Amino acid sequence: MKTEELHCCGDIHKRASLDKWIERLQSTKLKLTTPRHVILEFLHKQSHPATNREIYNGISNDCDLASVYRTINLFIKIGFVHQFDFGDGIARFELIEPGLDSHHHHIICNDCSKVIEIDHCFPESLTKTISKHTGFSRIKHKLEFFGLCPNCQ
User: Fold this and answer.
1) How far apart are CA 26 and CA 145, in angstroms?
2) Per-residue pLDDT for 123 more than 80?
3) Which whole-number Å values give the CA distances from 13 to 33, 68, 78, 126, in the listed order?
4) Is 84 helix (H, G, I), strand (E, B) or coil?
5) Quick one: pLDDT at residue 9?
6) CB–CB of 53/60 below 8 Å?
7) Rg of the Cα trace of the chain?
């Protein structure tokens, strides 16, 4: 699989090429419409989750805002996109890399809303301890950090 390297927080993420994403979409038997193509391309270029409005502003010559909402909902339904909630009531979206552990967290600036990916996570032993004490299984978590970025300090 052809990949591009993304450098975030000193770590390297592998990202499938845009062509592979298009092939993956076509393998679902869905049509590759202009909105789907340009939204997929926009999200592919992003290094952080984007809002519907950010997506629209980045591709507004190619489709309307309603098409952005419909396409994002479709991408969530078929497992292409993950939705994030950073506690401000605004949904953000990013591509889910197929076949890779794309689990990560974010730190968000309280003033300018800058988002940085954080690749560090809890040790597996914490999940096992929680499972042991609660009886829960298949535990997942979401963790977002908030603070002031260097530019806003």
Assistant:
1) 36
2) no
3) 28, 26, 22, 24
4) strand
5) 38
6) no
7) 17
